[in-house]
What we know:
By secondary structure, the chain is mostly helical. It is built from 7 helices and no strands.
Amino acid sequence: xxxxxxxxxxxxxxxxxxxxxxxxxxxxxxxxxxxxxxxxxxxxxxxxxxxxxxxxxxxxxxxxxxxxxxxxxxxxxxxxxxxxxxxxxxxxxxxxxxxxxxxxxxxxxxxxxxxxxxxxxxxxxxxxxxxxxxxxxxxxxxxxxxxxxxxxxxxxxxxxxxxxxxxxxxxxxxxxxxxxxxxxxxxxxxxxxxxxxx
Length: 198
């Protein structure tokens, strides 16, 4: 009975944490919508300069990572710890791959002197400056969340290898999975806002 209470409490705590994350990004989405409404043409021109291929690739990477995360939890619940660890390792790999692709994209923009407060960016229209400010802030914050997720999932993997997370005690992995799915969902919103804007 005590284990059930701990499980319920941890899940409620995780959902409250996720709610705070939704409020954080929700505020940024509202800010984005307000600036886009005032500067539709500048936002359109700035968005055309982003690499849609890399953005699409990163979207596929994160969607796949959500699948491997769900399969990891499902495998553990069915008693297949080795398969669960394999799927979790795949999720971690895909998270790292997302960060690598995003770093290539950022590096390319910085190489072309398009980054916050760069002379080249400040010489452009106000709406474009706002677009790139939001782009770096929101994708950077999201990237930080991906990095935290990769670290948390790595800790979960170590605990699984040591047998501390198993078929009878899988709440930590489930809560970590909820966080990872939220990170993926946030990117599903970021992708069209920055890369597919018309």
